Amino acid sequence: MPSEKDQDSDVPSPGVRLPDSGDVSSSRRRYPTWESLRWLFLFRLLMVAGLVLVFSPALTDPLIGGVNTALAWQVLVVYAMFALASGLFLYARWPSRENQVYLAIFVDLIAFTLVMHAGGGVGSGLGVLLAVAVTAGALLMEGRLSLLFASFAALAVITEQTYSFLQGDGPASAYTQAGLLGVVFFAVALLAHVLYQRVRDAEQLAARRKVDIDNLSKLNEFIIQDLSIGVLVVDGDRQLKLMNQAARNMINGTAAAPGTPLKEVSAELEAWLLEHIRPTAPQVGVIRVGNRELKPTRQLLGDYRAAGVVLYLRDNQELIQEAQQIKLASLGTLTASIAHNIRNPLSAISHAGQLIGEAKGLSPDDRHLLDIIRRNCSRIDEIVRSVLQLSRRNQLDAQHIDLVAWLSEFCTEFREAHALAPEYFAFDCESPPIAADVDPRHLHQIIANLCENAIIHGARPDSPAHIQVRVGRGEGQERARIEVRDDGPGIDEDTVGEIFNPFYTTKVSGTGLGLYIGRELAETNGIRLEYHRVKPRGSCFRLVFTV
Prior knowledge:
By secondary structure, this protein is an alpha+beta fold. The protein has helices at about 5, 35-55, 70-90, 95-120, 130-140, 145-165, 175-225, 245-250, 260-265, 265-275, 315-335, 335-340, 345-355, 365-390, 405-415, 440-455, 515-525; strands spanning about 230-235, 240-245, 285-290, 290-300, 310-315, 400, 425-430, 435-440, 465-475, 480-485, 525-535, 540-545.
């Protein structure tokens, strides 16, 4: 069973849900709190000390006449004992907080009334002490029982005045002053109640605003950390204030603590910032950090240097790929129109060229022109088929196949279809089986395209290309790998970064979509298509199965 001390604790116990912004009004903080009771205890000790100085026998205060010092000291001694006892009750947290407030306020009203009587009655001006006690009770009890405290204080003043009148110590006209003092008590109680209502409303509004600000802060932090764009915030001294996960991955992969100089995070980025920090400076340029090309942009947080700046980082390669995706997306919307509005007229042109070619008496120049028409019609038809394949690349039908058996059959068919001798087209494999989940149609298209490119680009002036298809696993890895190698001149280092871009080709009659379609189909099947240069000569296209 939990004790009353645990039940009255201001600190929520573990497992208790803290109120959110919608619960602040319905589950506000309970008053009085132990902290407010500590302030009340300190206030009462100060009152005791002040009254002891006022009624000290060594002082003569002309503002208080007819002081009964003996009675005053007796009351103050008893009041001091009650004040100290309240400190012990506060330490033990017994009785409850509300009961401690009731006891303290009623003791204060009685003690202050007796002190007022010892100081000369209502005319001494000490009745204001009762107004202070009424105000303290009203504020501590959330405005509850404020009128009861005021009624008790007014009754105490009238009782004291009646007693003084019966003893012959006070004139009858003092009843008017006692009544006005009672009115003051009620006015103070009502004002304290109104003040508390305003303070409570302000506190609830501040609590809601605090919760909203905390939620927004957490939401902003979550959004910033989850962005795919790298975000860094630096102050006017170029020291790091914030860095999200994407920025860490782009720069060095390690977290940097706030306050770290930007130069230690990335010297290249600091150099770019110094060059583009001016508001009028154009935000252009690409920096190289490690093996990445980054395109930074900046946003000043204010007109002054101390305000700092926000840096946004984008992977330049990703930007290029996005531009390519936009270009291909536009082509995709034209796929249906291409199939209908180009292929039909193209078929008519090709058929008309065939009919003209069957005519007799054509001159050599005419036949040369007909050859040009047929070649270009074939090229356009190939481009249309490649674009249509792009629109169907996501139609995946994965099957569990044995790569060794499948590639052996593929190589046999490809060798026969292209009339290649075994010494010019070899198949090499590790110990079977090597299984993978892949769409056989996509895999056939990828490898067939790589082999055809090897035949064309791997040939030498004195001999055809020597092609080798290999399947196995990487060293120390369990993932399957397929390689298509040739012993040709290889690809120049200046153009190796462009070979997977759409519409890039070195052939006059090529479409430039073969390798791009191969990479797209590979990624659809969870395969990574890579190019590696073979030394001293040759090329290697490698398919790495990542799933």
